From TrEMBL:
The keyword Chloroplast does not apply. Keywords: Hydrolase, Protease, Serine protease. InterPro entries: 6-blade_b-propeller_TolB-like, AB_hydrolase_fold, Peptidase_S9_cat, Peptidase_S9A, WD40. The keyword Chloroplast does not apply. It comes from Agrilutibacter terrestris. One of its GO terms (biological process) is proteolysis. GO terms for molecular function: serine-type endopeptidase activity. This is S9 family peptidase. PANTHER family: DIPEPTIDYL PEPTIDASE FAMILY MEMBER 6, SERINE PEPTIDASE S9 FAMILY MEMBER. Pfam families: PD40, Peptidase_S9. Residues 426-637 form the Peptidase S9 prolyl oligopeptidase catalytic domain.
């Protein structure tokens, strides 16, 4: 169907505008790359098997694996993907797991219980337009704490469910965004955290019977907090924070130990100048494992308790560690490991003999993994200085192998979302296809505002400084122009969510140097975004972006929002969106498409009616991926006008 010069096609849940038919030859070339898959650890079952999440059909579901490289037994078969799988503790009588599931990506996730003995599934939450997640069981399995917006749709309260009776009631309703962290060993107290922003959280403890909240004092008045857990004795706590230490501000989040009764306090990672990404304790109280994020690479550590002495570990493949969990007997540690040349898989460390066993081996579509390209870490100078020297921005550089001498490579710049996110060298089948099949380089920068590089770096793009991160893309374009192997006349950008805004803003400022851009679920106008995002997210986003209700930020948003300046976008644009997106509503996509088209520029537009903030169903993700490659072929690699 063609209307007002726009060719529109509706196929099932897909709506596409101005997107040409995908050539069969391209679909065939992409097929193997789109059939790679990964496996992610969910936890241990009481009988020593592992629960993993992986996709064999359209969506990621729960599977059980009971030995290294054993058969993966699929347990759930839903058209929607599962999220937040939480296995009941081995110290309880429960045998099963809780999981979350929404409808069409709307993120109004409901919690369910899967009983491993009967294979029955039961709904645990209200089944309404509420968001529920973060399931946490007490050690005896008598109670399950979780976060929910059921009270008013805006605040994320903490609820507690009596597992035996099935009754649930709100425990903490003081307003804001709260999450449950850990039950005390006796189940009578619950560690909780109120999240305000990436640099501000408030921890405390709640009496589970009375609901009385005691907030912990925060040194310096404001700090970031990661995990919080009771020590095995139930008195001391372990936690991750960047609170200042006596007389000294802290850039990174370190693992700390505090016993209020004795006053003993120790920073366990004092000598590691990087963030601790997370930690977990063994049920038997004998070990603690934690992971540090060192320039985007994960490093695993295990401490013996209570001595806090390092335990010898086997060498791990270089990569990024996802979830990790001790076995019920505490003698093994399972973890998810992903690398630039291998999808996520689950490995198990035997602590007694420091050995490593691989439990899953995910498929790579029949491709030769030896030909996958590993990125190098580069740092390029940007516009401002630190201590009298140019600030440098880290970026991962995927470069095709065996490039003929004198050949200049086209470049795709891939910008992460967040904005407090961080791009790490994980497996990216699109980057591999671009490098190996099309001879295109990919640069993945961590512009200012990214996490993983310290508190100061994280705050450099806040509020009125938003476009400083866009200037970091301008500096990357300068760097590309100086590299003899890169073609500065053929550069494109892509990104999702906040990265989608970065794409639009980059095109707004640098259309003369960027041929094309792909914006996925991106913000196009901060004022309309903050007005229309779901109410439970609005204050969290205002803490990062600024408050659109103030005159100062209204003016800033009017200046930096791409939808207000469509005449400045002269590069070719492809916008992709999920209709049910609660974070960045689909209206953000439609207004930028309308605005740019109104300026005479053609735009490709893709909308999925059964997706939300990103594309989780394989058929949808495959179509989007194929359309994106076709877009690059026509507007990045082709010789035509922009």
């Amino acid at each position: 169907m063609k209307r007002d010069g726009v060719v529109r096609e509706e196929v099932g849940n897909r709506v596409s505008e101005n997107i040409p038919a995908i050539p069969a030859e391209l679909l065939e070339r992409l097929n193997r790359y789109q059939n790679t898959r990964g496996a992610n650890l969910a936890g241990w079952t009481r009988d020593g098997c592992l629960l993993v999440s992986t996709r064999f059909a359209e969506t990621a579901q729960a599977h059980r694996v009971c030995q290294p490289m054993g058969v993966r037994e699929q347990l759930t078969f839903y058209p929607e993907p599962l999220g937040g799988i939480t296995v009941a503790p081995s110290t309880s009588k429960l045998d099963g797991f809780a999981f979350g599931k929404d409808k069409g990506g709307d993120e109004f996730s409901q919690l369910h219980w899967f009983d491993l003995k009967t294979r029955n599934v039961s709904l645990l939450t209200d089944g309404k337009r509420t968001q529920n997640g973060g399931a946490l069981f007490s050690r005896d399995g008598a109670r399950m704490a979780y976060s929910s917006t059921a009270r008013n749709g805006t605040d994320t309260d903490i609820w507690v469910r009596d597992v035996a009776t099935g009754t649930a009631k709100p425990l903490l309703t003081t307003g804001g965004s709260w999450s449950a962290q850990d039950f005390s060993p006796d189940g009578k107290r619950l560690l909780v955290t109120k999240y305000v922003s990436a640099s501000e959280s408030y921890p405390g403890v709640v009496d589970v019977d009375t609901g009385k909240l005691e907030l912990f004092p925060v040194d310096g008045g404001k700090a970031a907090f990661g995990g919080f857990a009771f020590a095995p004795d139930g008195r001391a706590v372990y936690f991750v924070s960047d609170e200042p230490l006596p007389g000294q501000a802290q850039e990174f989040q370190t693992l700390r130990y505090h016993d209020p009764a004795s006053g003993k306090f120790d920073v366990l990672t004092r000598d590691i100048p990087w963030d601790v990404d997370g930690f977990t304790l063994a049920d038997n109280g004998k070990h603690l494992a934690y992971v540090t994020n060192e320039d985007g690479i994960s490093k695993l550590h295990v401490l013996a308790l209570p001595s806090h002495q390092e335990v010898r570990l086997p060498a791990l493949p270089i990569g990024v560690i996802g979830g990790f969990s001790f076995s019920p007997d505490g003698q093994r540690l399972a973890l998810t490991l992903n690398s630039a040349t291998s999808p996520s898989d689950v490995y198990v460390v035997d602590l007694a003999n420091a050995s490593l066993a691989r439990w899953t081996q995910s498929e790579v579509g029949g491709l030769d993994a030896a030909k996958f390209v590993a990125p190098t870490l580069v740092r390029y100078p940007t516009f401002d200085q630190v201590d009298g020297k140019p600030r440098t921005i880290p970026a991962f550089f995927y470069k095709p192998a065996n490039v003929p001498a004198g050949k200049k490579l086209p470049v795709v710049i891939n910008i992460h979302g967040g904005p407090e996110g961080q791009s790490q060298p994980t497996f990216n089948p699109t980057a591999q296809f671009l490098a190996n099949e099309l001879g295109v380089a990919m640069l993945v920068p961590n512009v200012r505002g990214s996490s993983g590089y310290g508190k100061t770096y994280l705050s450099l793009d806040n509020a009125a400084k938003r476009e400083d991160s866009v200037k970091d893309i301008g500096a990357l374009l300068d760097w590309i122009a100086k590299q003899p192997e890169l073609d500065a006349s053929r550069v494109a950008v892509q990104g999702g969510s906040y990265g989608g805004y970065m794409v639009l803003a980059s095109l707004m400022h640098y259309s003369d140097r960027i041929r094309a851009g792909v914006d996925v679920v991106g913000i196009s106008d901060f004022t309309t975004f903050l007005t229309n995002t779901e109410s439970y997210r609005r204050d969290l986003r205002r803490a990062e972006y600024g408050d659109e209700r103030t005159e100062e930020m209204k003016q800033v948003f009017a200046q930096i929002s791409p939808a207000r300046h469509p005449q400045r976008i002269k590069s070719r644009l492809f916008v992709a969106q999920g209709k049910n997106d609660p974070r960045v509503p689909y209206t953000e996509a439609e207004q930028i498409v309308k605005a740019v088209r109104g300026n005479g520029q053609p735009v490709w537009y893709l909308l999925f009616n059964d997706e939300g903030h990103g594309f989780k169903k394989k058929a949808n993700a495959d179509y989007y991926g194929a359309a994106t490659i076709l877009f690059w072929q026509q507007h990045l690699l082709g010789g035509g006008a922009k």
